[in-house]
Amino acid sequence: MRSKILILALIISVTCFGQNKLTYSELKNNVIDYLVINKNLNNENAKKYKSGEYNGFTLVGSINQFNDEELKDGLYQFAPLASHQRIYFTLVENDNYTIIDLSTRQQLDDAITKVLDFCERKKFCHEISIAYAGKLISYFYNNNKNPNNGYDINCGKEKLTLKDLP
Protein backbone atom coordinates (compact mmCIF):
# COMPACT_ATOMS: atom_id res chain seq x y z
CA MET A 1 0.00 0.00 0.00
CA ARG A 2 2.78 2.38 0.94
CA SER A 3 4.60 1.75 -2.35
CA LYS A 4 1.41 2.55 -4.31
CA ILE A 5 1.13 5.89 -2.52
CA LEU A 6 4.79 6.66 -3.26
CA ILE A 7 4.35 5.79 -6.94
CA LEU A 8 1.22 7.94 -7.14
CA ALA A 9 3.04 10.84 -5.44
CA LEU A 10 5.94 10.48 -7.88
CA ILE A 11 3.61 10.53 -10.90
CA ILE A 12 1.78 13.61 -9.59
CA SER A 13 5.03 15.45 -8.87
CA VAL A 14 6.46 14.68 -12.31
CA THR A 15 3.20 15.73 -13.98
CA CYS A 16 2.78 18.94 -11.98
CA PHE A 17 6.36 20.05 -11.47
CA GLY A 18 8.26 18.36 -14.29
CA GLN A 19 6.78 20.37 -17.14
CA ASN A 20 9.30 22.14 -19.32
CA LYS A 21 9.11 25.91 -19.41
CA LEU A 22 8.93 27.24 -22.96
CA THR A 23 12.09 29.18 -23.74
CA TYR A 24 12.86 31.79 -26.37
CA SER A 25 15.32 29.43 -28.10
CA GLU A 26 12.79 26.61 -28.25
CA LEU A 27 10.08 28.91 -29.60
CA LYS A 28 12.49 30.36 -32.18
CA ASN A 29 13.37 26.88 -33.46
CA ASN A 30 9.69 25.91 -33.61
CA VAL A 31 8.64 28.97 -35.60
CA ILE A 32 11.58 28.47 -37.97
CA ASP A 33 10.32 24.90 -38.52
CA TYR A 34 6.86 26.36 -39.21
CA LEU A 35 8.32 28.58 -41.94
CA VAL A 36 10.06 25.59 -43.51
CA ILE A 37 6.87 23.51 -43.48
CA ASN A 38 4.98 26.36 -45.15
CA LYS A 39 7.74 26.83 -47.73
CA ASN A 40 8.63 30.35 -46.57
CA LEU A 41 12.15 29.25 -45.73
CA ASN A 42 14.41 26.52 -47.09
CA ASN A 43 16.07 23.86 -44.91
CA GLU A 44 19.58 25.19 -45.46
CA ASN A 45 18.74 28.70 -44.26
CA ALA A 46 16.68 27.29 -41.39
CA LYS A 47 19.72 25.38 -40.10
CA LYS A 48 21.83 28.54 -40.34
CA TYR A 49 19.24 30.58 -38.44
CA LYS A 50 18.98 27.94 -35.73
CA SER A 51 22.76 27.63 -35.34
CA GLY A 52 23.26 31.39 -35.28
CA GLU A 53 25.32 31.38 -38.47
CA TYR A 54 22.70 33.72 -39.99
CA ASN A 55 21.50 36.56 -37.81
CA GLY A 56 18.73 37.70 -40.14
CA PHE A 57 15.83 36.03 -38.34
CA THR A 58 13.72 38.03 -35.93
CA LEU A 59 11.43 36.84 -33.15
CA VAL A 60 10.47 39.74 -30.90
CA GLY A 61 7.62 40.97 -28.78
CA SER A 62 5.21 42.84 -31.00
CA ILE A 63 4.99 45.90 -28.74
CA ASN A 64 8.37 46.36 -27.02
CA GLN A 65 10.63 44.12 -29.15
CA PHE A 66 11.06 41.80 -26.12
CA ASN A 67 13.33 38.82 -26.86
CA ASP A 68 14.59 37.50 -23.53
CA GLU A 69 15.24 33.77 -23.01
CA GLU A 70 12.49 33.62 -20.38
CA LEU A 71 9.32 34.28 -22.33
CA LYS A 72 6.47 36.41 -21.07
CA ASP A 73 2.89 35.71 -22.09
CA GLY A 74 2.01 37.93 -25.03
CA LEU A 75 2.10 38.47 -28.77
CA TYR A 76 5.38 38.01 -30.65
CA GLN A 77 6.16 38.59 -34.32
CA PHE A 78 8.62 36.65 -36.43
CA ALA A 79 10.03 36.56 -39.94
CA PRO A 80 13.28 36.05 -41.78
CA LEU A 81 14.68 39.50 -42.50
CA ALA A 82 14.35 39.86 -46.24
CA SER A 83 12.49 42.14 -48.57
CA HIS A 84 8.92 41.24 -49.48
CA GLN A 85 8.51 38.78 -46.60
CA ARG A 86 5.28 38.09 -44.80
CA ILE A 87 5.23 38.75 -41.07
CA TYR A 88 3.89 36.05 -38.75
CA PHE A 89 2.86 36.17 -35.13
CA THR A 90 2.79 33.75 -32.24
CA LEU A 91 0.72 34.07 -29.12
CA VAL A 92 2.49 32.76 -26.01
CA GLU A 93 0.35 31.81 -23.04
CA ASN A 94 1.26 29.59 -20.07
CA ASP A 95 4.27 27.98 -21.80
CA ASN A 96 2.21 27.16 -24.89
CA TYR A 97 2.16 28.99 -28.18
CA THR A 98 -0.16 29.43 -31.13
CA ILE A 99 1.18 30.51 -34.50
CA ILE A 100 -0.85 33.20 -36.24
CA ASP A 101 -0.65 33.39 -40.02
CA LEU A 102 -2.12 36.53 -41.56
CA SER A 103 -2.07 35.48 -45.21
CA THR A 104 -5.80 35.99 -45.77
CA ARG A 105 -8.51 38.29 -44.50
CA GLN A 106 -10.25 35.32 -42.82
CA GLN A 107 -7.03 34.50 -40.96
CA LEU A 108 -6.85 38.14 -39.84
CA ASP A 109 -10.41 37.94 -38.51
CA ASP A 110 -9.65 34.70 -36.65
CA ALA A 111 -6.39 36.15 -35.27
CA ILE A 112 -8.13 39.24 -33.91
CA THR A 113 -10.63 37.01 -32.10
CA LYS A 114 -7.83 34.85 -30.62
CA VAL A 115 -5.87 37.87 -29.47
CA LEU A 116 -8.88 39.63 -27.95
CA ASP A 117 -9.88 36.40 -26.15
CA PHE A 118 -6.30 36.14 -24.85
CA CYS A 119 -6.39 39.75 -23.63
CA GLU A 120 -9.66 39.10 -21.79
CA ARG A 121 -8.27 35.93 -20.15
CA LYS A 122 -5.22 37.91 -19.01
CA LYS A 123 -7.43 40.81 -17.89
CA PHE A 124 -5.37 43.30 -19.91
CA CYS A 125 -6.63 46.86 -20.13
CA HIS A 126 -8.19 48.02 -23.38
CA GLU A 127 -5.00 49.85 -24.44
CA ILE A 128 -3.13 46.55 -24.70
CA SER A 129 -6.00 44.91 -26.59
CA ILE A 130 -6.09 47.83 -29.04
CA ALA A 131 -2.30 47.74 -29.48
CA TYR A 132 -2.26 44.00 -30.19
CA ALA A 133 -5.23 44.10 -32.58
CA GLY A 134 -3.73 47.17 -34.26
CA LYS A 135 -0.45 45.34 -34.87
CA LEU A 136 -2.28 42.47 -36.56
CA ILE A 137 -4.30 44.83 -38.77
CA SER A 138 -1.29 46.98 -39.65
CA TYR A 139 0.93 44.05 -40.62
CA PHE A 140 -1.84 42.39 -42.60
CA TYR A 141 -2.47 45.45 -44.77
CA ASN A 142 1.11 46.79 -44.93
CA ASN A 143 3.03 43.54 -45.34
CA ASN A 144 0.99 40.41 -45.84
CA LYS A 145 -1.87 41.45 -48.13
CA ASN A 146 0.49 42.80 -50.81
CA PRO A 147 3.99 41.66 -49.80
CA ASN A 148 5.59 43.01 -52.98
CA ASN A 149 4.35 46.55 -52.27
CA GLY A 150 5.33 46.81 -48.61
CA TYR A 151 2.47 49.17 -47.83
CA ASP A 152 -1.31 49.36 -47.99
CA ILE A 153 -2.04 50.28 -51.60
CA ASN A 154 -5.37 51.82 -50.59
CA CYS A 155 -3.51 54.40 -48.47
CA GLY A 156 -1.38 55.33 -51.47
CA LYS A 157 -4.48 56.46 -53.37
CA GLU A 158 -5.29 59.02 -50.66
CA LYS A 159 -8.94 59.33 -51.67
CA LEU A 160 -10.10 59.39 -48.07
CA THR A 161 -8.22 60.39 -44.93
CA LEU A 162 -9.06 60.41 -41.24
CA LYS A 163 -9.97 64.10 -41.57
CA ASP A 164 -12.75 63.15 -44.00
CA LEU A 165 -14.49 60.83 -41.55
CA PRO A 166 -17.33 61.73 -39.19
List keywords for this structure.
166 residues; alpha+beta; 6 helices
In total, the number of strands is: 4
Sequence stretches where pLDDT stays below 50 over 5 or more residues: 4-18
Tell me the strand order in the biggest sheet: 1-2-3-4
Note the gap between the termini.
Answer: 75 Å
Number of helices: 6
In terms of quaternary structure, what is this? single chain
* Overall SS class: alpha+beta
- Describe the main β-sheet briefly: 4 strands, antiparallel
Mean pLDDT, to the nearest integer, reads 82
Overall helicity? 40-55%
Q: In one word, what is the shape?
A: globular
Any overview of this molecule?
- There is one protein chain.
- The protein has a four-stranded antiparallel β-sheet, sandwiched between helices.
- The protein has six helices and four strands, in the order αααββββααα.
- Helices cover 48% and strands 14% of the residues.
